[in-house]
Design goal:
6-stranded mixed beta sheet, 16 helices, 39% helix, alpha/beta, 5-stranded mixed beta sheet
């Protein structure tokens, strides 16, 4: 009897397990919704499972989520054996930890139910790259180039292509090339053993060529090079000396092996653009491999997000920023000159650790309010500027700007002129070192008056840079502000009385 009970229990457990394995897993947009409760089941049901680990609210994950959906749709249309799954790491922290997922977003390909040895997918930013990566894993990972006709067709595929020239297409060194082609899935790869093609490029040893717009750009002799060596070479030279930031290049810029990026924010329609860009390109050649040079057109509306991130306005251009993508610390070129010497010195100081980071705010100076001209920084700007009991006139300047320096004596003179008037504050702020939430509307130096009213009002000054003209402007605006302040006081009084009357009625 006891034996029969044990047997029945065993059969029940088996049947429950079998039903569990066949139970469907919820999905959305052709992507399985994976959890700690169904992940093992998904591995058993699908021999090839590509899993996207993401945090839905992070800016980094948002783009990859949309691209992953495109991949899912394409694989379904192609009736591929590869199944896609997604893990929300915010909800599935335990699952992510058990799978040793430390980078989000990330893509891992699980094969034959093995959850301990997934294959990391290095291409994440575009659906086409992910699909190419999957396709190349099934082989071949590079096109076979047999003759000049094949070569021309191959070079037409993209602006930049990777061509491997090998004397023995079955040798070990070619295997390294094929492995690299799998991981660098955002570029076309071709391989040839054609002596005619060797002769065309005057090459006699196993070599990898980067061909840009049908012309050889860089070459790399394989010899005993490793997979890592070749990947680094390709990633180092796939960019032009100066790469313009746009929708097509953004992914490559962000994923570059060079983490130090020098960004030139400039209006391509400006008269001096060609000269500055030419100087930028000349300097870039000197720092290739150490600094990636990027040009951002401030006149392009689609670049609004990157300009917002770096807090650069159209009227600030041209301006140069350095950023390290490992820590996102920014540095700004402290000069209004964009010659080769200034750019080179800035890059060298940065690489040697001598450059000072661009801060959102400098520390508040110890005696910032003891001198006639008050020295403002980001941290005390709003408290002083929008003090409704003071009329505050501020000079927004950049210390390296000649036009700014010319105004310093005038500002001291203005402060002395109003030194006996406690209702007026004369101040200045270095806008190159302090971020403020005021739209200047023009390049520095800029002068603005903040009248003594309750509303946060900013009045720009555009007259002559002379003492009597500025004083006249201030007296006019202050007189107007007194009238406006009286109206504000009356409205506030009416509001308070109305509120008190309403409270009495409720009682």
């Amino acid at each position: 009897m006891k034996t029969n009970v044990v047997l029945c229990l065993s059969v029940c457990v088996y049947l429950i397990g079998a039903l569990d394995e066949k139970e469907s897993i919820p999905e959305e947009n052709n992507i399985l919704t994976l959890t700690k409760n169904n992940f093992r089941r998904a591995l058993k049901q699908h021999d090839r499972l590509l899993v996207h680990f993401y945090a839905p609210l992070s800016s980094q994950s948002l783009g990859t989520i949309l691209e992953f959906r495109k991949v899912a749709s394409a694989l379904k249309d192609a009736e591929s054996a590869v199944r896609l799954g997604g893990v929300d790491v915010n909800k599935e922290k335990q699952l992510a930890a058990s799978l040793n997922v430390t980078s989000v977003p990330s893509l891992l390909l699980y094969l034959s139910g093995d959850k301990h040895n997934p294959v990391y997918c290095p291409v994440l930013k575009s659906s086409s790259s992910i699909l190419t990566w999957l396709k190349r894993r099934d082989g071949p990972s590079a096109d076979i180039i047999s003759n000049f006709t094949d070569l021309e067709t191959f070079m037409d595929e993209d602006e930049l292509v990777v061509l491997g020239l090998f004397k023995d297409l079955e040798g070990d060194v070619v295997k390294v090339f094929y492995e690299v082609a799998i991981d660098v899935a955002d570029l076309p790869f071709g391989v040839t053993g054609s002596l005619e093609i060797f002769s065309k490029y005057d090459i006699s040893t196993d070599t990898v060529l980067l061909i840009r717009k049908h012309k050889p750009d860089e070459q790399f002799e394989m010899d005993k090079s490793t997979k890592e060596d070749l990947v680094e070479f390709i990633r180092l030279h796939e960019m032009k000396l100066v790469t313009e930031y746009n929708g097509m290049t953004a992914s490559k810029i962000l994923n570059s092996v060079v983490r130090n990026h020098l960004l030139l924010f400039i209006n391509k329609a400006d008269e001096g653009f060609k000269d500055i860009n030419r100087t930028f390109e000349t300097t870039a050649e000197k720092f290739r491999g150490k600094v990636l040079f990027v040009m951002v057109n401030v006149n392009e509306t689609r670049n609004g997000r990157i300009m917002e991130y770096f807090r650069v306005r159209v009227e600030d251009a041209p301006v140069v920023r350095m950023v390290n993508l490992s820590n996102n610390v920014q540095f700004q070129l402290a000069s209004d000159k964009f010659d080769k010497d200034s750019l080179s010195e800035f890059c060298l100081n940065y690489l040697e650790g001598k450059a000072k980071p661009k801060l959102q705010s400098e520390p508040i100076p110890e005696n910032w309010d003891k001198q006639p001209v008050k020295e403002l920084v980001g941290m005390n700007f709003e408290k002083v500027a929008f003090n409704y009991d003071k009329n505050v006139i501020i000079l927004f300047y950049a210390p390296w700007s000649r036009e700014s320096r010319v105004l310093f004596p005038l500002w001291e003179e203005l402060a002395q002129h109003f030194s006996e008037n406690e209702d007026i504050v004369v101040a200045e702020i270095d806008v190159s070192a302090n971020d403020i939430n005021v739209h200047l509307g023009e390049k520095y130096p800029s002068i603005k008056l903040f009248p003594a009213v309750y509303a946060e009002r900013v009045v720009p000054y555009s007259g002559k840079r002379k003492l009597k003209d500025i004083v006249k402007f201030m007296e006019k605006e202050i007189k107007k502000a007194k009238r406006d302040r009286a109206e504000e006081e009356e409205l506030r009084k009416q509001y308070i009385n109305h509120h008190k009357a309403a409270e009495k009625e409720e009682l």
